[in-house]
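Bit of a strange request maybe. I'm writing a small parser for structure token strings and I need a real example to test against, not something I typed by hand. Could someone generate the tokens for this chain?
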Amino acid sequence: MLKGKDIRNVFYNQINSICLKKNISEIYNENAEILISHPFNKLNGHEEIKNFWEKLFHTLPDIERRDSIFVMGDNFSDERSLIDIEGTQLVASISHYQGTFDKEFLGIPASKKVVYLRSCEVHQFLDDRIIKSYMLLDFLNLMNQVGLWPISPSLGTDFFWPIPATCDGVRISENISTSNGENYDTVMKMHKALGEYDGQNIESMKHSQYWSKNFLWYGPAGIGTSKGMKNFRNFHQVPFLRGFPDRKGASHYIRIEDGNYVVTGGWPSVEATHGGEWLGIPATNKRIKMRVMDFYRLENNRIAENWVPIDIIHILYQMGFDVFGRLKEMRIQEG
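Reply from user aminoacidic:
Good idea to test on real output. This should exercise your parser:
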């Protein structure tokens, strides 16, 4: 049986071999399932998974995968989960699929230039094959790279997500037992503080104590990146609370720690009523389910960096706004 860093190397090589266009049956279990960003949403079995990757390979024929974070760990428990997740071993990564945008993809026109498709992934293996994956790909960011923007402007900065400041995010040479739960506990305390919002005063959430002074919050396209608590509140937290005043955590299936890194997420991760304007969309009073992951890097038991992929397009779709439909209209108008 493989142990320690040998497991990490096997999993790392297996995931990265996807872009070498190996036979899907060598990478995925025959019963594999991928929960993936809108409009794909869910892929089952080799045929559907193969079709997805072939579409991406057709779009980026010289595709390469660049990992900036690659961590793994055993799940902590979550009483809200519909299944028992405790002890499930997961691999989590932040990557960019880089290549020449040669063919149209999802109605996004090919630029014939190098682009990077931001992807955040969590994989569960059965032996040496992937049995389940969660994948959030930032298609909005890809639209931005080709000069098309179908929604209201991001308040924060939308740019290439950087590697961790400590340059230690790809942890394939570590032993498997690299966690004592301390950093995970800090993140959970921060989550709890977020849930203490009184509906009126943002200061009622006593979560600032769990962040470093100049932390960086890397949000998805549509929200953008912010630095420090003031920017974080102005660019994301206040608009989000205005749009979803009753938001609450849903079932998390990802809860791992690997050294100074913690990853959480769910499908959905958050549920809320769209009770106020958000991203330019007036309140619809619809119940919204949000697909979110959080990748945290901690220093001295404080959160220093937080990468936050969110399926923004799926949220907007539930609110009645079809981003891909709007993109099509924009292209027709441009002739």
